Input
Amino acid sequence: MTEFQRKPKLSFWSIFNMSFGFLGIQFGFALQGGFMSRIFQTLGASQDSIPALWIAAPLTGLLVQPIIGYMSDRTWHPRWGRRKPFFLVGAILSTIVLFFLPNSPVLWVAAGCLWVLDASINITMEPFRALVADKLPDSQRSYGFVMQTLIIGVGTWIASNLPWLINQLGVSNEALPGIIPMSVKIAFAIGGVVFLGSVLYTIFTTSEYPPDDLKEFKKENEASKGFLNGFNEIFYSIGKMPKTMKLLGVIQFFSWFAFFAMWSLATPALTTHVFHAPAPVESAFNMADEGSKALFMAANKAYNNAADLVGSYMGMYGLSSMAFALLLTFYAAKRSINRKYIHMFSLFAGGLGFISMYFIQEPSQLIYSFILIGISWGSILSMPYAMLSSAINPKKMGIYMGIFNMFIVIPQIIAATGGLNYLYHVIFGSAVINAMILAGTSLIIGGLANFLITDKKVITHQAEDTEVWS
Output
């Protein structure tokens, strides 16, 4: 193996092409994040049971991402490369589930589909994160991760608005009890098509660098092959993770706890507190009586209209994250940036956005809350990964990106298994809108935790023409 490896700077279009697959990934995540709680409520889930139904998302990430990272680090094919085979498999599986999920006949089927969908998205997503670090010199990694965030923002905004837009085009957002509206079904189908198409675009427009010494690469893989060796390496890498990675994990913990609260409870919180249109409970109505049934249908219509608007307003966090990422893209392309302070103040902005929801009387004002949340989202998707990529061994980029996902999924597992419901009930009160106050508080704590990051190379990287490491 050669002593040094050099990576040239890439053009705008090269970085765009390698990041474009995130458009589809975010279509999947945005539809899941914006409308799974609505699907669960439509199929009969109670408000307090929703976070537990969401446990599939973080738990599959905890299991899948380190394994996929390890496997992709050890993969090489002359035509398909290292990460691209995983892009393709995950995209195909995700597309199939996106078509089927909104047609779930009962609650347990929808919950099971969420397990499969999140596992499939994770198969695609982790190698995309590693690809940026594989292809770019350290001086361009902030730029690369910000470019991903820009595309994620576009995907979030479009996907979050799809059910509302489809309803505006004449497709009904109403349905009989226990049936998902057709507007939601069509939105998920469109998401499936976009997911696969955007990932295929990246696969066919992006090449990957081969291992520096292919013979040595094969020799190392042969010496360490086997299921047991794989798990040993994962756990060994966990034990040897750099100090900066652990400190970034503290920040990630509070950041992703907050966003899990939004994804799982924003729809019931905002439809109830801001729109005054909670989801009607079928058992509370005598469906055999025409008058009672009419009341249920009116309440259901009001809820679905409110849920459409919540999804649409939620899309603003994607749009503002896109604008924020665009500013960072132009700036980071030419200058060094202070990743630490950008991330800190971005999380503060998101925290204020969540807390402001409690005080909103006019629903359209939610736009401003989600704009602030989008600033934090844009930073969460770029700055921690840029800082991490400057602190870890490039040869283990995939496995460490996968392990880093633990700091994303563990807070979500804690939230899903009762932590979210318990904390907002005990600290702020039983009204579900208080979950948003807890989310804001968590983001502010995450922002303050940036003071733990002290490694100057991680905080600010000076731009250079090429990057060299030993």
About this structure: The chain has two domains: 10-209, 238-460. The domain at 238-460 is CATH 1.20.1250.20 (Growth Hormone; Chain: A;).
